[in-house]
């Protein structure tokens, strides 16, 4: 079915983006809850620590379930509609997937290169090692 993979990939990337945003919101909620119970935890209250831990895990389970259900409800009919009107063979579908993968990989490289010190040296060392292995085989 031409168009199914690119449409599904786009839906998955959008879902991952929404999920990452919701995780940031959840972490802020947990931090606020931690502020309210900090004195009890510092005093050694096992109940306060367990309550914070279990509520955090429960909220994360609920968040993940809500993101998944919402994404399925929105993107399942949308992907079917895109596939119904795609109208080309599978070669452009594969090209779209490759372009999306390249964009995601480029974004990941950008993030790594701007957050890790001396990562360029590791990249060059890896490329050199790869070239040596390639030439010696």
Question: What is the H/E string?
Answer: HHHH
**How many helices?**
4
Main sheet summary: none
Straight-line N-to-C gap? 39 Å
Uncertain segments: none
Broad shape = flat
Count of distinct strands: 0
Provide mean pLDDT, rounded. Answer: 90
Tell me the helix content: over 70%
Label the structural class.
mainly alpha
Q: List the quaternary state of the chains.
A: single chain
Percent of sequence in beta strands? under 5%
Total discrete domains: 2
What would you report as the Rg, rounded to the nearest angstrom?
Answer: 22 Å
Brief characterization of the structure:
With 137 residues, this protein is mainly alpha-helical. The chain has helices at 4-42, 46-85, 90-113, 119-136. The longest helix has 40 residues, at 46-85.
Give a verbal description of the structure.
There is one protein chain. It is built from four helices and no strands. With 137 residues, it is mainly α. The protein folds into two domains: 1-87, no CATH class; 89-137. Helix 1 runs parallel beside helix 3 (90-113). The model has no long low-confidence stretch (mean pLDDT 90).
Itemize the secondary structure elements and their pairings.
Elements: H1 4-42, H2 46-85, H3 90-113, H4 119-136
Helix pairs in contact: 1-2, 1-3
């Amino acid at each position: 079915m031409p168009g199914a993979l690119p449409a599904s990939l786009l839906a998955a990337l959008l879902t991952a983006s929404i999920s990452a945003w919701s995780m940031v919101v959840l972490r802020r909620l947990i931090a606020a809850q931690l502020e309210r119970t900090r004195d009890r935890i510092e005093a050694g209250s096992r109940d306060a620590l367990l309550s914070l831990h279990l509520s955090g895990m429960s909220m994360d389970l609920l968040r993940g379930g809500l993101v998944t259900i919402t994404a399925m409800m929105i993107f399942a009919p949308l992907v079917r509609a895109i596939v119904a009107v795609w109208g080309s063979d599978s070669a452009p579908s594969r090209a779209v997937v490759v372009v999306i993968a390249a964009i995601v990989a480029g974004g990941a490289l950008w993030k790594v290169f701007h957050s890790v010190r001396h990562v360029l040296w590791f990249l060059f060392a890896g490329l050199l090692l790869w070239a040596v292995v390639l030439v010696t085989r």
